C-alpha cells in the first residue's frame, strides 16, 4: 500500500503522530512525504518509525525543509533496513562533501538515494548522455521514462514510476 501525503504542509510537530501510524501499518510499502515542511526533528520521529516497519520499500522526503543532517539520519537507518531500497531526497540542499559522504555511506548497500545533481554536473551528464546513450537507456526511451538509476525523471511522478516498475516486475 501507498501513503501519499505530498503537499499537505506537514510539519515536524505532526511527524510524531505520523510515525506511530507508519509503525502500526504492516502493509505500507511507499511513504510519500515530499513538498512538506518537515525539518530534522520530524525526520528523527520518522527514523524511529522506519526501524520498526518491516514492509516499507520507498521513502520520499524530497523538497522538505530538512538539511544534510536529516538525510544522513535517514540514510543510516535505511541503509541497514531489510526492506527499504529507495530514499528520495531530491530538493534537499547538499554540498559536494555531503554527497560524497552519502555515497561512501551507502556504497556497499542496496539502498539507492535519489538526490539532485548540482547544475554543472547535471549539464555535463546530459551532454554526455546525448553524445553516447548508455546500454541501460535505449535510444527510443520516451520522455518521462525511468532514468539510468531507476529514479523518476523530472516530468514523471512517483505513481508513474511505480506503475512502470510494477509492469516489469521490478517493484
Structural features, described:
α1 runs parallel beside α2, α2 (40-52) packs parallel to α3 and α3 (68-79) runs parallel beside α4 (96-106). β2, α2 and β3 form a beta-alpha-beta unit. The protein has helices spanning 12-24, 40-52, 68-79, 96-106, 119-131, 158-167; strands at 2-4, 30-32, 58-60, 86-88, 112-114. It has a five-stranded parallel beta sheet, covered by helices on one side. It has six helices and five strands. It is of the alpha/beta class and 171 residues long. The longest helix is centred in the N-terminal third of the chain and has 13 residues, at 12-24.
Keywords:
single chain, 171 residues, alpha/beta, five-stranded parallel sheet, 6 helices, 42% helix, globular
For the residues shown, what is the average pLDDT?
82
Number of strands: 5
Main beta sheet: 5 strands, parallel
Shape: globular
Helix content: 40-55%
Terminus-to-terminus distance: 12 Å
Total DSSP helices: 6
What is the alpha-carbon Rg in Å? 16 Å
Would you list the SSEs in sequence order as H and E? EHEHEHEHEHH
Q: Per DSSP, what share of the residues sits in E-state strands of 2 or more residues?
A: 5-15%
Major sheet strand order: 1-2-3-4-5
Q: Structural class, from helix and strand content? A: alpha/beta
Low-confidence stretches: 135-149
Condensed summary:
The protein has six helices and five strands. Strand 4, helix 4 and strand 5 form a beta-alpha-beta unit.
Amino acid at each position: 500500500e501507498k501513503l501519499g501525503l505530498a503537499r499537505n504542509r506537514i510539519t515536524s510537530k505532526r511527524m510524531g503522530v505520523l510515525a506511530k501510524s507508519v509503525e502500526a501499518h504492516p502493509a505500507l510499502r511507499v511513504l510519500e512525504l515530499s513538498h512538506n515542511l518537515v525539518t530534522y526533528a520530524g525526520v528523527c520521529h520518522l527514523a524511529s518509525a522506519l526501524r520498526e516497519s518491516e514492509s516499507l520499500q520507498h521513502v520520499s522526503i524530497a523538497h522538505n525543509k530538512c538539511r544534510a543532517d536529516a538525510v544522513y539520519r535517514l540514510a543510516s537507518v535505511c541503509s541497514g533496513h531489510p526492506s527499504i531500497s529507495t530514499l528520495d531526497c531530491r530538493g534537499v540542499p547538499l554540498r559536494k562533501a555531503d554527497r560524497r559522504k552519502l555515497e561512501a555511506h551507502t556504497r556497499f548497500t542496496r539502498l539507492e538515494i535519489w538526490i539532485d545533481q548540482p547544475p554543472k554536473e547535471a549539464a555535463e551528464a546530459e551532454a554526455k548522455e546525448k553524445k553516447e546513450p548508455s546500454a541501460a537507456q535505449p535510444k527510443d526511451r520516451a520522455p518521462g521514462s525511468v532514468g539510468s538509476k531507476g529514479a523518476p525523471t523530472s516530468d514523471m511522478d512517483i505513481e508513474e514510476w511505480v506503475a512502470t516498475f510494477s509492469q516489469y516486475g521490478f517493484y
